Amino acid sequence: MTMMWQHIRTRVNSYTTRTTTTWIKDNKRETRMDKELLEKELAPFLSPNTKEEIKTIAVENVVGLTGSEEGKTFLKGSERLLEGLVSLTEDKRTDIQESVFKALINLMSDEETCWTILNLEKFENKFTEWLQSALDSSCKNADNICKLLSNLTRSEKCAGRVSQQVLENDDISIEKIVLVLCNLAHNPKADLHYLGAVLENLSQIREVRCRIMDKERCIMQRLLPFTEFKQSSVRRGGIIGTLKNCCFDTEYHEWLLGDQVDILPRLLLPLAGPEEFDDDDMERLPDDLQYLPSDKQREPDAYIRKMLTEAILQLCATKKGKKFVKDKNTYVIMREYYAWERKIDHVNEIAAMSLIDVLIGDEPSEEFGDNLKEVDIPEDIQQDFLKQDQKELEYAYKEQREKLEENCSN
User: Fold this and answer.
1) 378 Cβ contact partners less than 8 Å away, ≥ 6 residues apart
2) What is d(CA 257, CA 322) in angstroms, rounded to the nearest whole number?
3) Residue-wise pLDDT tens digits, 3-46
4) Residue 203 CB contacts under 8 Å (≥ 6 apart), including other chains
5) DSSP secondary-structure letter at 252?
6) Type and span of the H or E element at 150
7) What is the Rg, in whole angstroms, of the alpha carbon atoms belonging to the chain?
8) What is the percent of the chain with per-residue pLDDT over 90, rounded to a whole number?
């Protein structure tokens, strides 16, 4: 290495180290000065056209910053440094690409940073390019890109920002995402499990849900078998999260519950155990839930079980939907599930009991109409509900902490 490169390397390292140190000290004047120095000295090296050795040094230093909250806070305030990182996702060296993607994945755990990156003027179409790459069957970095996109679209605000691009571009359409997601052999070099999380995030947006539930496209039906996908809880959870989001739209409930989709057995089956029922109860269950094997296991992921329960609860929002769910003897499955869950997870126990209360409760009076979501609840009652929910959550978290502390002491 020449003396010039040694000099630059020393400067890059010293500025990066000094920046994190002054940030920890919370000296605003020093931090602001070092930020300017860092942008001036480091940002030009974050480019695909930079000399290889200097680019490597620059990337190493920036990646190091993303390993701490102080470093991430510092970086998210610099559009120049973020632009440099984004530009290097197209670098010809795969090791540089991988390092940069990992850095961006760390940075995108913050919604504000995600919003900044989505609105970088130089990269206004970058989301489209990333998603196209993730859907490319020969892309080596597809898994890292999917993780990045999963973080990038986590908030409803960011998902809404990119949803129109997805809805208007055939190369990254919802249909294309689902086809790739449902084809396990699509990319031999990538698992693509996090593409399920991307779909779930996008389904926060009503227009995306309407596309998924377009009766002529058969998108929803492709997703249903993955409620029992054993190979990955990430893919399974992403798809179940998508189904749950779709259950919020009451105008589609009749179609979702009808023969064209028949979503209820797909949501119930992961919650069912090996319990036996009498003949009368068994005959009232959907065919897929009758005479399950003695070694039948429930969904192992607590968060996924909660999403399944919440999805079924949403389907009970209308009188017709609630009657259908009750007539399929959902209660006996949930009764056994609740007895099993209460020994494991208090938060899920509450969710299960909420559904059971709906199933065994009296029908609402005529004044509430056919759709409970359209009921106008007074503000004071809403606040009481929120306070009650908060107390239940606090109790659940306290119980979980006590169990964790007990396990650690043992």
Assistant:
1) none
2) 11
3) 444 544 554 455 444 444 333 334 443 444 466 666 777 777 88
4) 209, 212, 241, 242, 245, 246
5) G
6) helix 142-152
7) 25
8) 62
